Amino acid sequence: MGDRLYLDHAATTPMLPAARDAMAGAWARWANPSSPHAEGRAARAALEDARARIKSALGWSGDLIFTSGATEAIAIALKRTRSDAVLVSAVEHDAVHRAAPKAFFLPVQGDGTVAGHALTGRLGALGASNPLVVIQSANNETGVIQPLAELGAIVRVNKGALFVDASQSAGKMALPEADMIAVSAHKLGGPPGIGALLIGNLGLIDPDGGQEKGYRGGTENLPAALGFAAALESSNAWFKRAEDLRAHLDGAIEASGGQIVARRTPRLATIAAYRMPGMASSAQLIQFDMAGIAVSAGSACSSGTLKPSHVLAAMGWDAGEAAEVIRVSFGPDTSRADVYRFVEQWQRLAREAKARAA
Ligand code: PLP
């Protein structure tokens, strides 16, 4: 595909070499981990080894239920919850909103974070005896990091359980303290099609399924589990460099008349959202693609179509301005030269947009 520059790692990121190698070797382990014969027992041992390695890499000591990705982990946690009320932040991924259509909404502030007093207020108004509160670790459109230490403490005081969608931050930042956490392998250099629900107490959800201690149905994907483990065990030292790259990119975009979404909020170093005044994000995507650069607009990805961002709307953005925002996301191989190349194109498009408006 020529000299392409991929800056859409938040959508999915290429598999790390160690994950590919682990999977290539794993195809020889074709047996069903639930079979009692020797081949099955060997597959079971390999699966349990992968489970233990993933837990250790993530620093999680509770149960780990393998799923097909974060979406399924979210669905299991929310559709089978035993809580008497579910409270969901307004900026959650669509997968959360779809799995809990009757949930109560928790608003965010203009900076994208949930305020402690808002959470306290909503929990008080709900009056539930064991509420489930759903708040992501880092937003997939803006990178905004939620203050989960503070919010988790409020949930505990109110005798609730906290479920965190850590799809974007897992493998990059330490996991938050939570009762349940969703993670996804393809966001951290593992294969697509596998993820996990981390759960401290299985009593929080109803069992269903013939595998995974009765909490999930379907033969486990052993090669993918081994790829997932290998990806998590790969060095993530590159993530520290991303902070620098993002700071440079932020500065260049702002100096060229762009607007940084959630400028002053702590954000995951690999995700940034920028508004280019005067040019629709759909047009920007086409222009960048023609210039060999892959970026995305908001949470555009579900069906390949662009829809207004519920995240920016929840942060109080005007719909017209929100429609001019694109997302840039870094991966392990993103370099300073890549950032320069993106900035050059961004400046060219911004100049054209300005000239058209004049
Ligand atoms: N949650 C967040 C925050 C995401 O960014 C994504 C992926 O786009 C998902 C959930 C869904 O993840 P998966 O593709 O593993 O189902």
Automatic annotation (TrEMBL):
Catalytic activity: (sulfur carrier)-H + L-cysteine = (sulfur carrier)-SH + L-alanine
Pfam family, one: Aminotran_5
GO molecular function, one term: iron-sulfur cluster binding
InterPro entries from the UniProt entry: Aminotrans_V_dom, Cysteine_dSase, PyrdxlP-dep_Trfase, PyrdxlP-dep_Trfase_major, PyrdxlP-dep_Trfase_small
Keyword Cell membrane: no
Keywords: Iron, Iron-sulfur, Metal-binding, Pyridoxal phosphate, Transferase
Domain of life, source organism: Bacteria
Occurrences of domain Aminotransferase class V (ranges): 6-342
The keyword Secreted is assigned to this record: no
Cofactor needs: pyridoxal 5'-phosphate
Reported function: Catalyzes the removal of elemental sulfur atoms from cysteine to produce alanine. Seems to participate in the biosynthesis of the nitrogenase metalloclusters by providing the inorganic sulfur required for the Fe-S core formation.
Family indicated by similarity: Belongs to the class-V pyridoxal-phosphate-dependent aminotransferase family. NifS/IscS subfamily.
Protein name (record): Cysteine desulfurase
